[in-house]
């Protein structure tokens, strides 16, 4: 028979449909594959009706129940041959022979469909060639030579794609060239594996204009087995996965694994760039189990840094040494001498981030920028279970979102001495931001633990410059019995600020350290802290010998062991706090109050009873009565409810006549003593008034600005004479109380 030129696949959009007419030839109902919304449909859910007449109208697929969704029906011809090409007389049996020729042609149609499907998204220019890698493999050459010949051929005709069907291909090295695209049948199916002993970068290329790898896997043959196995041996001791210099490149569903060196290293071309140079890169892939860094993307020099879209990138287990070495050592970088190996490094790049998930980098940082980098958040960088999670260089600008957890983690088999944490320690801290106001980021921190050694007390977020950060941070209890903090909240400060002119917006829960450790200057800080533990204060402000000042701090503090701790008396600052501290063991304030001779402004109110009636604050007013029923000198002790022990110059008091004035004559009234909790007034009446309603009201007002007279003494006096005839200088008595 004559085989029709046809595409052995139909696609339908079904809505409560059962029957689907096929327009390609089929001869056996078993040779059909049906998918619904990308998932293969079991044959028990449908049956195939095959036409008896040979035509391109091959039959129908009929479901037993109505379905809705995208239905794809594909012919899959078995790779087999028919027996009996000749009869007993040794004459050729043409029907059997033709049947197998037809089968071969149908398989070729189906193979062509697979190639077209894999290259569908490339949209190449019509003149571009499309090749099959098996066209270049002969009995006399290796796969390394076949790939080289295929790449040279495509490059020489101006570019195109090379299809690599499912299978494992052993090679020493692949040298990519401009406008060449390698396409596999999936990263789990098409595996390019480096030959043991190659000890060189697997995929390379210099001064490439553009290049694409799609739906395949690169295996560098670094370790012989599972990295957790102590008997694992090193097969290739050096060499990265990809190491090329290119202006534009695409990785689409590419996996790079088991590499002795850097998983992916992209460098700028040595050819001078211009403003018209195309520098666009798109990445979607997985990088894991690398002896050095996972991914280093280094942008251009001079005219531009290139534009990268990281659509989806998972990078894990990089800077990974064999188990016997990893117990006491970390992997050090060869590309950045003196530094440990990180997970993802963006160096002088412009990157739009969809999703980056970086994890288990026990030698270095999960995500780091170097030099000038522009970040644009559209998605998130998830960094977890690394030695440190995120480090942002001073030159970074733009915006980003970080989600971090499992802080300060080292290799699960670590037996060496764990460092004693000294703040700050960027090699272990969660997120370290060195960028200026040109950079803004949102950070979510979940301080949780996994059964692995870790450095204790690390800081979740450190801001060393003027960037704007928004932080949500929470902690949990250590639940691994091998941890020194077992059944305690994981320790460490939530935020350390040491910069100038930063902006911080924070929401912090159950921190077992200082929720906010403020050692910087001129920041605008807004926060809410709940249930801070005994490891530190909800707000800790240290002016470092009064050298750091000018912050505006506004926040709420709810049920924390310690609300506010102040170290130093900065020249200027504004602190506005509202607290609920009603527990018996909850302290509102400790430390240095503001200096009366400096311009710090505190407006702090704290409820210390469940009904909110008992309070401490930095502005208090109250009254008490003097009873004129004796001429003997008296003292009265009044709880002042002030946040700290006030200076006498902060206390203003005055006398108020009642509706029915007393007839008693007051000889003197002055502030005799101030304690942490009380004001003690001394007074004496010259004459008495025994009326039951007789009293004199004293109005007291305490504020930070006060009403005193500094260190001066009033010079005019008002005197009187006591019962013994001695002169009493009332104002001098008052002035002495101010000294």
The Rg value, from CA coordinates, equals 39 Å
Percentage of residues in strands: 35-45%
Distance between the termini: 118 Å
Total of domains: 5
Describe the structure.
This protein has 5 domains: 9-118, no CATH class; 124-242, no CATH class; 291-492, no CATH class; 501-616, no CATH class; 618-738, Sandwich (Immunoglobulin-like). Residues 118-128 and 706-719 have low confidence and may be disordered. The protein has a 33-stranded mixed beta sheet that branches. A hairpin with a 2-residue loop joins strand 2 (32-36) and strand 3 (39-40). The protein starts with 8 loop residues before the first strand and ends with a helix. It is built from 4 helices and 46 strands. Helix content is 7%, strand content 43%. With 739 residues, the chain is mainly beta.
What attributes does this structure have?
single chain; mainly beta; five-stranded antiparallel β-sheet; 4 helices; 46 strands; 43% strand
Topology of this structure?
Blueprint: E1 9-22, E2 32-36, E3 39-40, E4 46-50, E5 59-75, H1 94-118, E6 129-132, H2 143-156, E7 160-163, E8 167-171, E9 174-175, E10 180-183, E11 190-194, E12 203-219, E13 242-259, E14 264-267, E15 280-290, E16 295-298, E17 307-318, H3 323-326, E18 344-347, E19 350-359, E20 365-370, E21 373-384, E22 388-392, E23 396-405, E24 431-433, E25 439-447, E26 461-463, E27 468-475, E28 495-497, E29 503-509, E30 516-518, E31 524-530, E32 539-542, E33 552-558, E34 562-567, E35 572-580, E36 587-591, E37 599-607, E38 615-617, E39 619-626, E40 634-639, E41 651-656, E42 666-674, E43 678-685, E44 696-703, E45 719-721, E46 727-729, H4 730-738
Parallel strand pairs: 6-7, 7-10, 8-11, 9-12, 10-12, 11-12, 12-13, 13-14, 13-15, 14-16, 15-17, 16-18, 17-19, 18-20, 19-21, 20-22, 21-23, 22-24, 23-25, 24-26, 25-27, 26-28, 27-29, 28-30, 29-31, 30-32, 31-33, 32-34, 33-35, 34-36, 35-37
Antiparallel strand pairs: 1-5, 2-3, 2-5, 4-5, 37-38, 39-44, 40-43, 41-44, 42-43, 45-46
